[in-house]
Amino acid sequence: MTPAAPPVDGAAAVADALGRLPRVADLLAARAEEHDRDGTFPYQGVEAVHEAGLLTLTVARRHGGPGAGLAETVRVLAGLGRGDASVAVLTAHTLLLHAEQSRTGLWPAAGYRRLLTESRRGPALLSALRAEPGLPAGAQPTTTAHWDGEAWKLTGRKTDCSGAEALAWMAVPARTDEPEPRTGLFLVRGDSPGLEIDPVWDQLGLRASAGHDVLFDGVRVAPDHAVRLVPPGPATPERQAAADATRAWHDLALSAVHLGTARAAQDWLIRFLRQRTPANLTEPLATLPRYRAALGEIEAALIGAEELLAALAAGIDRGEPAAVARSAAGQLLANRAAVATVQQAVTLTGTPGLSRRHPLERYLRDVLSGRMHFAADETVLDAVGRAALERGAPRRG
């Protein structure tokens, strides 16, 4: 284990970081349109998140960090999503890997000390690169690792790699080319020789998140940076529980980003309704009952989704298996609410809501693009349905 760091007042550190959140969100919002339009990477936004202490919020207290839990992480990511969803997504991936280190000790001790040193000097973005071109969800990776007697050599391509051009470290799932292959995670520095960024990212939304492809051509990985190497087969109960917790953190954290974006859309809608007075009216649209009722529908849906995420996150922080089990359904409901409310805002505003002179159309593109972060709805619903059938099955004997 990494040697214990000096004691940290984690609660105070988290409170300080949360206090800086509104200003950081405002800074992100000020440049979000520029980065979206040009597809440029938001380096200044990431720097602002880092300087506020938000990029390392989930570093464990034993490592000198604030040790934020999932409930606090959800609050932070919703706030950042209100400013710029792309920066919030980059922050989410980094916070998730620090949190996983806190729970499971993913990194070797020396490697994590190095990462924390880099994080004190400046932003050190992290991401797990799981997607591969044409690879079905849950399938074994085609990226291969060859042992040359001294180190592992990685070869393959990963796609949709958020922050690819600026990642300090990558956690790369791969399988060995041994006679009996094993799969695991290979921890790779972003500036490793043999690593190349293919700048193919040109998506509808989250355009500043730089989800380019990453190519590995014999990238060297030290033996102690190959972790969780296991042969194929069913996971042990302990490994499955750890994987379920990692998935739950991921689902709720990324959902929070998109709910934050939906709140930004609602903020803009409220300003529009207060200011817009059509030629056939003498008062703004906000004075009309049907617009107020429609805004009430949006508010009610967002309250429900936010309360759901908050409750599930708090339950996961308390170690409740039921909260972990319900997280996939929670993210589905939260993201449906995010998409539906932004679409409703666009409908209420008509042509202005679709104009690139206003941010509402960007919010819509960003929440729609959130689908890439989650399993398909039918996959989630099938699993939820199976669980319901098992729970309702008659007991024997």
Explain what you see.
The protein has 397 residues and is α+β, with helices and mostly antiparallel strands. It has three domains: 10-124, Acyl-CoA dehydrogenase/oxidase, N-terminal domain (Butyryl-Coa Dehydrogenase, subunit A, domain 1); 144-230, Butyryl-CoA Dehydrogenase, subunit A, domain 2; 237-392, Butyryl-CoA Dehydrogenase, subunit A, domain 3, CATH 1.20.140. 53% of the residues lie in helices and 14% in strands. It has helices at residues 10-38, 43-51, 70-83, 85-104, 109-121, 237-275, 289-317, 321-349, 351-354, 360-369, 377-392; strands at 125-128, 144-147, 152-161, 167-176, 183-189, 195-198, 212-221, 226-230. Strands 1, 2, 3, 4, 5, 6, 7 and 8 form an eight-stranded mixed sheet that branches. Helix 8 crosses helix 11 (377-392). The protein is globular. 45% of the residues are buried. The model has no long low-confidence stretch (mean pLDDT 94).
Summary?
The protein is an alpha+beta fold. The chain has eleven helices and eight strands. The chain has helices spanning 10-38, 43-51, 70-83, 85-104, 109-121, 237-275, 289-317, 321-349, 351-354, 360-369, 377-392, and strands spanning 125-128, 144-147, 152-161, 167-176, 183-189, 195-198, 212-221, 226-230.
Features:
397 residues, alpha+beta, Butyryl-Coa Dehydrogenase, subunit A, domain 1, Butyryl-CoA Dehydrogenase, subunit A, domain 2, Butyryl-CoA Dehydrogenase, subunit A, domain 3, 3 domains, 8-stranded mixed beta sheet, 14% strand, flavoprotein, Acyl-CoA_DH_C
